[in-house]
Amino acid sequence: MATKFPGRVFDVGIAEQHAATSAVRLAMGGYQPVVALYATLLNRAFDQVLMDVALHQPTFVLDRADVTDPDGPSHHGMWDLTALAAVPGMRIAAPRAAAQLQLLLSEALDAHDGPTALRLPKAGAGAGIRALARVNSLYILHRSTARPLDVLLVPAGPLERPALEATGELEEHGISVAVVGPRWLLPINSTL
Q1: pLDDT tens per residue across span 126-164
Q2: What are the Transketolase-like pyrimidine-binding domain coordinates in residue numbering (predicted)?
């Protein structure tokens, strides 16, 4: 993006607080800033996120929002979801595939009722998962034919594939299961 749009990218270096505050000022000026950070480094800017971002609604794209083996424990993006849940009006998504990332980023940029964040794993997006149906903002990814259902799995983003793989083993043991993937993790869908 920096090569294609050099006038639209600002590298603030290793200064997450400055990145968050700069995004707030840009948002106040009528722009729709997107702040790209490692998920774990968002912790450094939490004060700015809590006090400023909730009021001025930039979008965060958080890379490495998972366990990042070769990068070491300081780069495991495990706390951002909990921290961002405390921000009033925050909407958070964890896209499971590249096509969903494009759609959710577009929705995030169109949102004007609060700040947004997209959590991305370090790993590649992988092949898309085809949903059986969509109910409100939930994708039905699997539903056992046996009734009543014994287990409802609600995995987020890259955990949807392992959840689907687990359904076979559960059904072999006579446990009926449904898997739904929320489009947005927060706010929690009231239809669940």
Answers
A1: 677 889 999 888 899 999 998 899 999 999 888 898 999
A2: 1-127
